Amino acid sequence: MICFLDLDGVLVNFLAEVHKFFALPYDVDNYPYEFGRWDILPPKNMSMSKSIFWDSLDEDFYANLSWTKDGKQILSFIEEVFGKNNICLLTSTTNTPGCSAGKVKWIQKNLPCYKRQFLIGPPKQFCAHDKAVLIDDKDRNISDFQFHGGYGILVPRAWNSEYKSMYNSFDVLYSKLSELSNMESVWKT
Questions:
Q1: Each residue's pLDDT tens digit, 26-42
Q2: 20 to 30 A from 72, CA-CA: which of 65, 135, 137, 151?
Q3: What is the rounded CA–CA span in Å between residue 62 and residue 12?
C-alpha cells in the first residue's frame, strides 16, 4: 500500500498564511467563512480580482509557508503506518508563476527526505489504484480518487464536509487508517 499525501491544508497552513500575506485577520476558532465551503479565495472583503489575488502569491510565498498545527503529527503517523519509502507528497498547483518552484523549495527545506518523492499537479485521481490511498483536505480530490479505484481519507478542516471534526483531525485520520489497515486485502501486495 502506498500513500499520496497532500501538502496545502494537510501539512501546510496555506489559508492562514494567505491571510497573513494580505494582512487580514484569521483565526480558525472564529472562522471567517462558511463552514464546509471550499472556494473561499480571494476573501470577500478584498477588492481585487482572482487573477491579481493568485498572481500576488509568488515563489517566496509558497516556499515559506508554515506547518498546520497538526501537520508534523500527521506526517509522523503516516510515516509510521506506511514507511517513508511508501509515501509520495502529492500537491496541486495554481497557474501562477512561482507556485510549483516555491512548493519544491518548501519540500527541500522542510522535508528533505521527500525531495525525490513528490508529484505536483491537480489531477490527483491519475494516481489512484487499488493499492493507493490519498490523504487530502479537499472533498472533490477524495471522491475523484475513490471513483478511479483508490482509497481516500479526508482530513477534517473548516473548509470541507468534515468540518465538524476539525478539532479532532488527527483522531479522525487515525480511526480511518485503522479501519483501512483492518482490510487485509488492501495491504497484501
A1: 888 888 888 999 877 88
A2: 151
A3: 10
Which CATH number, 2.30.30, 3.40.50, 1.10.287, 3.30.450, labels domain 2-187? 3.40.50
Furthest C-alpha separation in the chain: 53
Per residue of the chain (189 residues), give pLDDT as tens.
Answer: 999 999 999 999 999 999 999 988 888 888 888 899 987 788 777 788 888 889 999 999 999 999 999 999 999 999 999 999 999 999 999 888 899 999 999 999 999 999 999 999 989 999 999 999 999 999 999 999 999 999 999 999 999 999 999 999 999 999 999 888 776 555 554
Strands (E) located in the chain: 2-5, 87-91, 118-120, 132-136, 151-154
Gyration radius of the chain's alpha carbons: 16
Per-domain boundaries in the chain: 2-187
Cell of 6: 497532500
How does pLDDT run across 91-112, given as a tens digit for each residue?
999 888 899 999 999 999 999 9
Q: What is the rounded CA–CA span in Å between residue 81 and residue 181?
A: 9
Q: Which of 177, 180, 158, 160 is nearest to 69 (CA)?
A: 158
